[in-house]
Design goal:
The complex is a heterodimer. In chain A, 78% of the residues lie in helices and 0% in strands. By secondary structure, chain A is mainly alpha-helical. The mean pLDDT of chain B is 87. Chain B contains one helix and no strands. The chains are: A mainly alpha, B mainly alpha.
Chain lengths: 564, 39
């Protein structure tokens, strides 16, 4: 990175919060602080919802995921448009009619206080940890590659978000997310164009896609019914539907986004905008990863993308082993490049043979990377994040022109800031409205609760920074976030669906049903290896089955509240 | 707001949901065709 890059980076990440602070200057009522005001329209809501979900992990990890395996991850989003329609038709009208600040207040009105607290508690645990991952994930990669100090990176990005979220509340989060998302979309479009432009002139774009497809990178849809396959049409449609329904319907970080503005019409339009754009957006991000993969078939890639870890292993006595692997890797690269040219020029009868040669070489290249990782582990420089997370950022730093590099680092930081702001805003609001107000200070003034929400938002920011400072990741960054969500979301969604659709169930029955369902998901998570998206379905189904059963047996005779 | 307005409003939203569903179906179909073409 040079001065131009730093100028673009600093200007982008500072200008948006400063503009937001200017737009939200002056004091706000509790309603304005937690729900924004009527000036927030559907486009802002739509971009804000999109930015909250995207996060830095989408832009760092997802191209790497396509590079490493294929673009099949797109199927995880297939349930989302359907879920968003259900949220528009069922959830939003109820939240708007009851004028709730948080989704869990609805549980309190429909059932009882303990069910409200359980829903809010499950949300706080899950989102509190997720907020730490949101900031840790990009910080560890940027600090490793750019030489920034990890804790300083975490504190600078996190500190800025805490300051503006605490001051401006929901309105500033929505306004800043709108412009951060615009920067993200422009940055990713430029990255896509540059990546296509930098592809080898040896192959046309069509031939590049053809070879990438033959190397297994472009399988977007797979109709397999094997439950152990992580990404299939069915797991995406069914598991993804429950994940998205839970996320958009019952996760306060999203509920707060579309309730901003207060109009049913604007909320629905903002959500339907997401139903239309999410799948194409994710497709282009994944396709970008496949294009980067093809770029590195003609331009020699590093033998291991996490270069800082690689360098540390070189310096700690493992240079001979790594040099040998590097030589073998160089040789495979040269042969593979020749094989790709052979595939693209082969006649249809020779093509199968050429493809077999190419696949064998690709498997060998994979094996060499695995051996390199094994040496790194042996050297004690075990990387804390998956190597594929370093692919796209390495491509940015080495292949993009100056200025664009700064813009794309700003994209990653904007995504971090927007996702974290929404999360902190929701954590602070939920703690203030669902715990502090009913349990600690029931009858204080509006101003008192605004100050409490501000203090709690700041406290959650510090907790997120604390989690980030001590975190070490076990799996790919996208996976960590989605697995965490899937483990908790099923039972939370079950609470809401029971509230909406099973009138005779009371608070105690649904409360214990949710507790049992959550235990069941924990046990399945610890003892089986089924695709994690299914946890959403299992947790939700368990609540929906157990709640009426408990109502008819143990809690028979307790009076059911009328459905709200 | 009259009952007539409510009915029109509900019908208009149902149409919006149908449009969103149709767009999604087209997106999945295009992705499937993309898979068939390049895999």
């Amino acid at each position: 990175m040079n001065r131009l890059d730093y100028l673009v980076l600093v200007a982008t990440i500072l200008a948006i919060p400063l503009y937001g602070l200017w737009r939200t200057r002056g004091s706000a009522s509790l309603g304005q602080y937690l729900k924004g005001d009527a000036s927030i329209r559907w486009a802002t809501i739509g971009l804000s919802v999109l930015a909250t979900q995207a996060g830095p992990i989408t832009f760092l990890s997802m191209p790497g995921q396509a590079y490493e395996s294929c673009i099949g991850f797109i199927q995880n989003y297939f349930g989302q448009p359907l879920a968003l329609i259900v949220v528009c038709a069922v959830f939003v009208p109820i939240y708007q009619r009851l004028k709730v600040y948080t989704a869990y207040q609805y549980l309190g009105q429909r059932f009882d206080r303990k069910t409200q607290l359980l829903g809010a508690f499950l949300f706080l645990i899950q989102r509190g940890i997720a907020a730490g991952i949101t900031i840790y994930a990009p910080a560890i990669i940027l600090s490793a590659l750019l030489g920034w100090r990890l804790n300083l990176t975490i504190w600078l990005a996190g500190g800025l978000v805490i300051v503006y979220t605490v001051i401006g509340g929901t309105k500033i989060v929505s306004i800043t997310q709108r412009y951060q998302m615009i920067v993200i979309l422009i940055g990713m479009a430029i990255a896509f164009a540059v990546a296509v432009y930098r592809l080898s002139p040896d192959l046309s774009f069509q031939n590049t896609l053809f070879v990438a497809g033959k190397m297994g990178k472009l399988e977007a849809v797979n109709f397999s019914v094997d439950p152990h396959k992580r990404y299939t049409f069915w797991s995406g449609l069914i598991g993804g539907f429950f994940l998205a329904l839970s996320y958009f319907g019952a996760d306060q970080s999203q509920v707060q986004r579309y309730l901003a503005g207060g109009s049913l019409k604007e909320s629905r339009l903002g959500l339907l905008f997401n139903a239309g754009v999410k799948v194409p957006m994710q497709f282009f991000i994944l396709l970008l990863g496949a294009i980067v993969f093809m770029f590195y078939q003609f331009e020699k890639p590093p033998v291991y993308f996490n270069q800082p870890a690689y360098q540390r292993a070189m310096e700690s006595g493992y240079a001979p082993e790594l040099a040998q692997l590097q030589t073998q890797s160089d040789e495979v690269f040269t042969r593979k490049r020749a094989a790709i040219r052979a595939v693209s020029t082969a006649s249809s009868t020779e093509r199968d043979t050429a493809m077999n040669t190419l696949r064998k070489l690709d498997a060998k290249a994979h094996a060499l990377r695995d051996q390199t990782k094994a040496v790194l582990v042996q050297a004690g420089v075990d990387p804390k994040s998956k190597e594929s997370d370093y692919v796209f950022i390495t491509f940015i730093l080495q292949q993009m022109p100056h200025g664009v590099v700064g813009l794309l680092i700003a994209v990653i930081l904007c995504a971090t800031m927007s996702a974290m702001a929404a999360t902190l805003n929701a954590l602070g609001s939920t703690t203030a409205i669902d715990f502090y107000r009913p349990l600690i200070r029931p009858n204080a003034s509006d101003h008192h609760y605004v100050v409490a929400a501000q203090a709690l938002t700041a406290a959650w920011g510090l907790i997120a920074i604390g989690v980030a400072s001590f975190a070490s990741l076990v799996e790919n960054l996208i996976e960590a976030g989605n697995i965490l969500g899937s483990v908790f979301y099923g039972s939370i969604l079950g609470l809401f669906l029971t509230a909406f659709f099973i009138r005779r169930v009371t608070g105690s029955a649904v409360f214990f049903a949710a507790l049992i369902a959550q235990m069941l998901v924990f046990v399945l998570f610890a003892t089986t290896n089924i695709g994690y998206l299914w946890y959403n379905f299992i947790g939700c189904a368990a609540v929906l089955i157990l709640a009426p059963v408990l109502q008819q047996t143990i809690f028979r005779g307790t009076e059911a509240h009328a459905a709200v | 707001m009259s009952a007539q307005d409510d009915g029109d409003n509900a019908r208009s939203w149902r149409n919006s949901y149908s449009v969103a569903l149709s767009i999604f179906a087209v997106e999945v179909m295009l992705l499937y065709l993309f898979t068939l073409r390049f895999s």
